[in-house]
Amino acid sequence: MAKTVLKNILQILIILIFNNFLAQKTPEKLPKNVVNDTISKKDTIVVKKEALDDVLRTKADDQRRDVPKKMTFLNKNAQVKYQDMQIDADYISIDDNKNLIYARGKQDSLGKIIEPVITTQAGKKYETNEFSYNTKTKQAIAYNARTEESEGVITAQKTKKYNDSVFAMRNADYTTDEYYIKKKDTAADYFMRASNIKLIKTKDKSQIVTGPIQMYIERVPTPLILPFAILPFSEKRAAGILIPSFGEREDVGFFLNGLGYYQPIGEHFDLKILADIYTKGSWNLRPQMNYLKKYRYSGTFTADVGTMVRGIKGLDDYTKNSTYRIAWTHTQDTKANPFLTFSASVDIVSTKFYNNPLNNNYIFNQNVLNTQQSSAVTVTKRFLKLPATITGTASYSQNFATGLADLRLPQMNVAINQFYLFGSKTGVRQGLLENITVNTGFNLTNFVSTQENELFTKAMWDKMQTGLKNNIALGTNTTVAKYFTFSLSANIDNALTTKTLKKYYDPVKNADVDEIQKNIAGYSTFSSSASLQTTLYGMLKFKKGSAVEAVRHMMTPSLSFTYSPDFSSPGFGYYKNYYNAEGALTPYSVFEKGIVGSPSSGVVGALGFNIGNNIEMKVKSKTDSTGVKKIKIFESLNLSGNYNFAAKDHPWSVFSINGQSSFFNNKLNVNTSLSLDPYKIVFAPGATQGVRTEQFGHFSVQGFNVQLSYPLSSELFGEKTDYAKKYPAKGEIRNENYYFDDDNYAHFDQAWTLNINANYAYSKGLSALGTKIASVGLDGSIKLTPYWNINGSTHFDLVTKDLAYTRIGFTRDQRSFTINFNWVPFGQYKVYDFFIGIKANILSDALKYKDRSFTQPGAPF
């Protein structure tokens, strides 16, 4: 009994302690559907939640309500509005028990859907055959749904909406065909087909994630199959696969050119990696990185690294060479820092790369014809208060013909801003003294010319030369006798170098030897000149009513006198003598092979002349509103030469004549140059080189060059046809560019261009037989149809009678994508290249038809 009482007391104490503990806790917030009784905190009333979160608004031509089954049926022009969603269909049923809305499109007599269900939600429109929506779970299922996203449209057999952000689709096609999207065509010209697609939508962007996906063109499957695809619907840069072109090249076989991947890196960088693969074993890797900081700078790093394989392994014609090319460009925005600018244009190419280019783009853009390559990095410093500009440059140039590389590392130039030596007394500068200007500066250069394999080796550093030059130029001018301009100038050059030349005859080698000595030496030179110039005008008028009304001639003659002393005289010490292999005493300059150049030898007291001419003609013209038009006979025609009073022989120089003109409404451009030697050249019997005599007045041609260029186009031959007025019917193909005559034949504008370039050059000098260079070049394009374009270029050597570089290409605009074909049928590199690319921006990032990055116009940043 006592145990039972004790047990009961313990139970009561435990209950009291637990209740006291609960009483001390803060009451939790009640759910929204629980109403808190203000009289008692212990008593609550649970209110049942409504089935719908909003009012369901309906309308239709025929509405019927089945009260026992809690069903509503809407027929003909049915519409349901619920929250942000609107459904328009031919038939809609609403099941209150299952919280389900079902909609179906309009059917024909055979049960085929002829008008879809239109569902609009959050500004997006969806077209389906059938549509089911659960108002409780917010999930939906649609059949044969058509969903527009950004630039494209997705059509899927079955689509399930899990929520407002995730849609799963089965057996779906995606296309960006504008005509299919705008329902101008019932079939897309291309689409990407996948068995499973997931559409993910967020507040800022949306994207498609697919499994295996295949491209179809005109409903024909292509070999382009990707294991997966991510298509971002955003204006921002996005990663994607780079689709290659394919073709064949005679020396390396079939190829895929430009296969790769594009990856944006943060806000300021993007990376592109391309690969070129050839069936005969050659390969090439081409990484490229772009960078950009708005209003500051932008640039690009590119490289070509590969292996060229030619011939068959084991045979004599087999070769295998490694090639490389490294390029870097950097541009600083002018607004970033006007006092300190940095720029770079670096393009370093191995000789083997030049001889064995694996990147076919170098063939199509004719870079393989270049024989020289140059690179430079430049830093320029300006000052707010100091009148000076400092420029530092590192440059590198290659000559693929000789294999030599010239390196300037570094080169610094200090330029002092031009200033007047004397001030003006009246505020307006007058006379020779007040107009004297001074230009001066310093130039420091480290230079070496070496073989490519000696770069940055001890052999290169031993050849390195250092030179410092200073130039002081004074000039002034004034007007004499109202019509003449009189000018005076003087130049002073100072130079220092770390290496000089010593020449001597080596009896052991029986040859003249050039020995470079390491010592500091310098020189100073000066020269002065005076010139007088004026302008003369002449007009020749013809009788009234003549086809030619007048000829106008403007002549600009000038005379100049230049003087400089003989710096080869022993008093200056810039020249020395040595006995050559024939035993003759021969003078030479100790600076002869140096970086600062050599002082001039011989006294110069030369009177020079230049006569500039401009000749125009006025003719009657019916096409001109004024009734006359000007024809330029010679835009410029210059004759120049000089007579050296101090010369012991041949005081007259070679005469030069240069002309430039244009004809046929400035279409035909002509540039000519002619060199005439005033002294007679005689040849000994059987000799190939002549001797210049002192007989003046023969004026033999030493060189002649003429260049012509003429651009032709369809607009030059007849007026443009107004097809809309001429033909009664307009085509419905794409952009309605076709017009049809009464016989239903299509007409369109076949625009074409043809640029003709011709060059002829003759040089003779003292040679008995001169050399000739003559070539004709053509390049142009023609539109066979508004969407077919053929273009090409070729050059024909008139001397060797051979075709030089020739390229033929065509492009086909296929609505949503472009087909490009390029072919080089002749020459060292015979190659053709074929490429298909999608034009839509969304797929230009995913499949990269265009390399859209932030360094190109129109791309956001």
TrEMBL record:
Domain of life: Bacteria
Transmembrane stretches, start-end: none
Domain LPS-assembly protein LptD central, residue spans: 208-679
Cellular component terms (Gene Ontology): cell outer membrane; transporter complex
Protein name, entry field: LPS-assembly protein LptD
Species whose genome carries this gene: Chryseobacterium elymi
Taxonomic lineage from the root: Bacteria, Pseudomonadati, Bacteroidota, Flavobacteriia, Flavobacteriales
